[in-house]
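Q: Here's a chain of 196 amino acids. Please give me its 3D structure as tokens.
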Amino acid sequence: MTEPWLASFEIRFPASTVDELLLALIVRDLVHGSSYDVVVEETKEEFLVDATVSDELDGEGYIALFEVEITGEVQHETAREFFEEVIEGAVEEAEALREAREDLGSLPVDAVEFRPVPEDDERWDLVTPDWLAPEDAEVPFGFRSYRRDSGEAWPSEQQLDDSGRVIVVPFDGKLHLVAIPAPKDDEECGEADATH
């Protein structure tokens, strides 16, 4: 069996508004943990793509850091073109999900603290930027936000249960909670036919 090979790259997204940062975080969530079995019609190449995404914020915008593991007999260029299509599709889906958003409120950053949580308390439907994670917390799901005044989880379990996804969007000194529908391929592995 062919040894898998790794590719890593970054994509910078604008983050000058809550909506721009929200879109970038939705794209990260759509791609992180995704897996695709790909068959290229023209060349009959078959390969498997597994992707993870981390993120960071700098003065110029939001950076999504992609780590892609590719298994199978495939040209690097073919794999690159396929993953570009994955990103383009994720951006289109993210735009549609953002349109269906529901704002769940906001709090000042200093009114919230982030704590590590045990694996049993992780919520895969809560999307929080990696840079908000406390030390020693597993990213992206091994930490959660809590209100400093009451110690209650924010968002609450009920808010998470009632939503497809809840995104924590840090912007301009506040944390904004935004609910979006569950992605269309939630909890499914992707299968794709590629033509090049």
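Q: Can you summarize the key feature?
A: Residues 187-191 have pLDDT under 50 and may be disordered.
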